[in-house]
Design brief:
single chain, alpha/beta, D-Maltodextrin-Binding Protein, domain 2, three-stranded mixed β-sheet, 14 helices, 11 strands, about 20% strand, elongated
């Protein structure tokens, strides 16, 4: 006896079969674990790309990342709100072990901050750490200041007031920037120091990287700082920065990676390290890991399994996606060490 074809099935059975198919799809979708992370705005463009790519491939987990601030992300994951966080501030011992959730930090990619500016004619400007510190202290007030002119021979610098723009409190970019300034200038170290929430002597505030770009682009004479990918995508001028070897270096994936490679032997198993001012002629000096802050206790077993799946993907195929989007991926040995740490999560 032949099986009936679809055309011979009663309409009622066809409708029932369609309903069951849709229901099974809904159930499968509901079976996926939804992972939510929050934190720094710095890596948010990459994490949006990562989420889309991972979500398309994964049959068991979906990821969503909420951009806010590094400190807000750490606070969220520390109190059990969300599955992971992200940022550019190394965790303290208390943050790792003192809350209801035990946390570790894992590097995801390398990032770099660049000084952005808006000057007539769009000249290519060089900066030293000391000059940047003096600008953000309010001691250098004009673009034609002798200290800026000295390190920019042949560059036409306007006689124009400098308008400082800085990020709002709690930001990982503040920490990277002030860490570099603290290493570059004793006056900055003593008056401000390194912090995600520094007390700025001068300037107006911008909340997000996008806001920083908008404010600098709208004001002639303005200077600010953003992660390199924001500057490249916005086509705004950004400067070369003098490194510890006395070389003025542009932020590129190669020069950012060079900063990490130069420090690789001193990177501990907990990955808490400063890459600012790394040695080497090719090293870009305002570089950093951006970290994922990951709970190793407090999550349900199925959520932990899903989170480990995402982390292993991010530290594997995700690195090539980072490269193709203009970011500096982790050096191979660092990525492997991070993957081994993920595998050890109970």
């Amino acid at each position: 006896m032949r099986h009936p074809t679809r055309g011979n099935l009663p309409p009622r059975l066809i409708a029932a079969a369609c309903f069951l198919l849709v229901l099974s799809c809904v159930v499968r979708a509901q079976d996926k674990i939804s992972l939510v992370g929050s934190g720094s705005n710095v890596p948010s463009p990459l994490y949006a790309v990562w989420s889309d790519a991972f979500n398309q491939k994964s049959t068991s987990a979906q990821v969503r990342y909420l951009s806010m601030s590094t400190l807000e992300g750490i606070a969220n994951v520390g109190k059990g709100t969300g599955d992971f966080a992200a940022g550019e501030v190394p965790l303290s011992d208390e943050q790792m072990h003192g809350s209801k959730t035990t946390l570790i930090e894992l590097p995801s990619v390398l990032v770099a901050l660049v000084p952005i500016y808006n000057l007539p004619g769009g000249p290519q400007v060089r900066f030293s750490g000391k000059v940047l510190a003096q600008i953000f202290l309010g001691d250098i007030k004009n673009w034609h200041d002798p200290q800026i002119v000295k390190i920019n021979p042949g560059v036409s610098l306007p006689d124009m007031p400098i308008h400082v723009v800085h990020r709002s409190a709690g930001k990982g970019s503040n920490y990277i920037f002030t860490d570099f300034l603290s290493k570059s200038d004793p006056a900055w170290q003593s008056k401000v120091g390194k912090s995600p929430s520094p007390t700025w002597p001068v300037g107006e505030e911008a909340n997000r990287g996008e806001d920083m770009v908008t404010k600098v682009a709208a004001t002639q004479g303005a200077i600010g700082y953003v992660e390199a990918s924001f500057a490249r995508h916005a086509a705004i001028g950004y400067g070369d920065v003098e490194n510890s070897a006395g070389q003025f270096v542009r932020a590129t994936p190669a020069s950012i990676t060079a900063s990490c490679t130069a420090m690789e032997k001193s990177i501990r198993d907990d990955f808490r390290v400063s890459l600012a001012g790394a040695p080497g002629k090719e090293s870009y000096p305002i570089a950093s890991f951006t970290w994922l802050y990951v709970p190793v206790s407090g999550l349900a077993p199925e959520r932990t399994r899903a989170l480990k799946q995402f982390l292993e993907w991010a530290l594997g195929p995700g690195q090539e996606i980072a490269r193709s989007n203009g970011y500096a991926p982790l050096p191979t040995a660092i990525a492997e060490r991070a993957r081994e740490r993920v595998k050890a999560i109970p």
